[in-house]
Amino acid sequence: MGYSEYDMWLQGGEGLPPEPCFAAGPSLPPEGFRLTQDAEGFRIESADEAGRMYGSYALQACLKLGKQPDGSVSAPAVPERILNHWDNLTGEVERGYSGKSLFFKDGELYYDPGRIKDYARLLSSAGINRVCLNNVNVTPLSARLITDKLPDLAELAAIFRPFHIKLIIAVDFGSPVLLGGLPTADPLDDRVIGWWAQAADRVYEAIPDLAGFLVKADSEFRDGPAAMGRTQADGANVLARAVKPHGGKIWWRCFVYNCEQDWRDTKTDRPKAAYDHFFPLDGSFDANVTLQIKHGPSDFQVREPNSPLLGAMKHTAQAMELQITQEYTGQQIDLYALAVQWEEILSAAVSGTRTMRSLIGEEIGAMAAVANTGNDANWTGHTLAQANLYAFGRLAWDPSLTAKEILSDWIGLTFGTEPALREPLLGMMLSSRGTYEKYTTPLGLCWMVNVHHHYGPSPEGYEFSKWGTYHRADHKAVGVDRTANGTGYIQQYHPFLQALYEDADRCPEELLLYFHRLSYDFKLKSGKTLLQHIYDTHFEGVEDVTDFMKTWESLKPLLPESAYAPVAVRLARQLENAKEWRDVINTYFFRKTGIPDSKGRHIYR
Amino acid sequence: MGYSEYDMWLQGGEGLPPEPCFAAGPSLPPEGFRLTQDAEGFRIESADEAGRMYGSYALQACLKLGKQPDGSVSAPAVPERILNHWDNLTGEVERGYSGKSLFFKDGELYYDPGRIKDYARLLSSAGINRVCLNNVNVTPLSARLITDKLPDLAELAAIFRPFHIKLIIAVDFGSPVLLGGLPTADPLDDRVIGWWAQAADRVYEAIPDLAGFLVKADSEFRDGPAAMGRTQADGANVLARAVKPHGGKIWWRCFVYNCEQDWRDTKTDRPKAAYDHFFPLDGSFDANVTLQIKHGPSDFQVREPNSPLLGAMKHTAQAMELQITQEYTGQQIDLYALAVQWEEILSAAVSGTRTMRSLIGEEIGAMAAVANTGNDANWTGHTLAQANLYAFGRLAWDPSLTAKEILSDWIGLTFGTEPALREPLLGMMLSSRGTYEKYTTPLGLCWMVNVHHHYGPSPEGYEFSKWGTYHRADHKAVGVDRTANGTGYIQQYHPFLQALYEDADRCPEELLLYFHRLSYDFKLKSGKTLLQHIYDTHFEGVEDVTDFMKTWESLKPLLPESAYAPVAVRLARQLENAKEWRDVINTYFFRKTGIPDSKGRHIYR
Predict the structure, then answer these.
(1) What pTM was computed for the model?
(2) Is A220 a catalytic residue?
């Protein structure tokens, strides 16, 4: 297969270079490659066909970005770089902001094979090599992907296969009952064990290279082993043993918590749930089970600490789960370059000597993320949100990359390397995460979003709900005390982090209100009170968006109209959203406290 | 037709008396009757067949309740006593808490003719004589009740007809575009005028006694004349002229307000909307247009003042709209005898000399209410909620009845007249409205409900939304100032009421926070502060529900098990709901103010 089969990021690739020389590199790691240039031209060495493909993409990227091959070996940090679609067979995409499903419609598999091929190329060019097409919230309809809809899925798998992408199927833990007609889905029941084994045999006959199954169990009203008095390991292992003969794996999500909490119960603390449920089970999962752990203990909020479960288990395979779709981060209306947040996540300490980044490829053997793509013409709704999909793939391959490097590459590949365009756009994207945080919920405050849809502010929308999502703001203080004197959540961390987080004066300020309950007059390092900081950031956030609009407008002559206009429309919507957030949050705290802005700016009464 | 055709309320009627004598009473009013008893037996005089039917029901009720016919003439206060179903053709019932639709399923008319006959008898026995089967939020599917689904609807109409119930169809104002393929629904466009005329001809050919059309226009994203630069009168009149040749009428809802308000806009005040939109148009509606006006200016809240629009127009036909389905009043989980609230509504002054009751049959020529029925075996989910359906029919016939009279009759007809059962149950039902108000939102505070579904508390769930639903509570005060110094809403009332409402010291206390913004230390007539009153009522409300449970349990030996057990289950759920409301509202205000309960009861932090 020549490299022309491997199209460059975003259908680019005009001015293709001369055909490179492909060479065997048996000592190179799987999927890895070495790209060199000598007098005869370009050379791509690899040990396998996948490496040849990734090398080809890399060469094209080099050429388009005007870089020289540096001769070093490039190989992925983890063997599994996974995209999770939350697509329902109805065609709706849960938390999707880019149109409808690329794969499903009205209960059937329904797609444009040409577009799926483009999509597979797009994903593989970013380094993604595993894709789950159906939602982890498996409906009775999509449960049937392992029964009568299997032949259709096998056809889709065949489109992804040339791009070295293996499919994963999200399955319903209750399938033995739902599909098999058994009276129970108890994982220790022989009939259930047999049913899963047969199901796996059938699935692997149709899709022999299927990567495995993804499961959301005992989570938000989904079936799971706990309901049957079994452990999470019992549940995962029955599936693992079914797929093992076929080389398959199980991805078992750790998003298990009490979603029917009583707000009056101040002992239960949702962030503690994943660790409490899974850490004691370390070592009891089969080798082909990977626990898929969200990066933070809440749910893809704008600012959370890293999950203490990540890396804590030494005898259990783990995947970090990120969210590319912008459920809580602007829903592809607001600009939000997730690479910046992910770099922060990876750079954060997990102990006195290690960062989260150092766990990738070690304790954390796989990277997964929820897709932000749909059937919109530009894949991601907001054109600049393509950078988030790209960034996930790049980081999963090489977690040492900075957001600046990744976004700079993405802009270069997408819009060209002209500095007059690239530098301002890069600046805007790099600051976008901080800007969104400013005008929404700074200092680690979570859940001040509108219920259900999660766009826009509702400071107490989740305050008395059953979801375990409380900030308990009163007229004097705000936040949940998660120290040893409070819920004790901090004690789940490495002692190094415990010491850091327990002390409000040492705690990273951006996480202050995640860990502490503080009065509004708490003094930050800037000398400002906590309340004044809230006011200031909200005013600043709106100013930032105004600046984004000006920057974007200034770039108009350098941008294709097809990119310029839709983004300009979204920036205008973002400005309205930022103003709404500014005013609601400032008014909310002003009403609570009666303390005016020290700079006399307008806060609604 | 003998009276045995007219079954008694709730399928009762064992021990039927000897066949009465029916006599012509040409001087009696339409639908009216006179019931007498002499040596030969019972006599029912009436001027028409409907009167004969209503008289038969009355006789059965008399006998079952152990009353003597008093020989007086009974005739309805208004000729149209209307039930509005909010049933969608999918089978879902908007704000329905009693199962699915009795009439529709999966996009089609789908019903049990026997059950519909029972239902028609049930309604007519309460005095209801007009029924709209489909939701005022007309979907594209239900819009087709006036096109291809018309023959099916005509069959349903035939089941209601013997019970002197005429159907109404809710139509989409955009039908000329949606169904007719016209480029506009502009009511002054000749093609639109022609389209509606033809539609009416077609509909009346199929259902010659159709009462008319019901329309929700320019309301909550529905099509309407305003979008085309036309008045509400223009919109209503085009329909009125189409049905006029057939003797039809139009019911035009006045629920028109800005549902995309910005909470920062303190000038716009949703309660003012109906009056502002419709009062200036008084006299410009055709004679066969009835404006259907919700009893209060908000939306069927637990406590609202009466709408100032009701009775204000002297040259426009008006209907009062009530809501039997308990959207904001407990959703047929919590016990809530609406008759009590309706008696209050009717007893309230509209001027220095008249009550709302005196308008019924005068300015207000029709009574309408949103149905609480569905395909649950007991019709209304909560068995005791049957009393609300019954009460609406009774009050529409005779607004001078008290809640006590109506509920006493309902209990007698349903469970028998044994005082040991009747008195305690009557007491419980009579106090249920006050109890619900206590544990939810006293003093006229509205909208502290969970968004979308409207069950349970969310004190700020609607505080920053676009629905015009704000209480603007801060750490010192709560409520919207609707006096002349505020939004001026009170100025829409008769001067007598203006004077009453403007002055917080004279304003009926139960409406204080509907009209005034008051500080938490405002002194009520009881000597308590406003805040302490809030705390007290919330604690009392829960105690009341506990008492209801005790009362109900004490009645167990006197009740059929089929009635006892399901109500007991609902009372237990009500208790949980009451506790949730108590704790959320008390905590909400405690957090805002830091002021503890003077009696030291537990308020969560």
Answers:
(1) 0.94
(2) yes
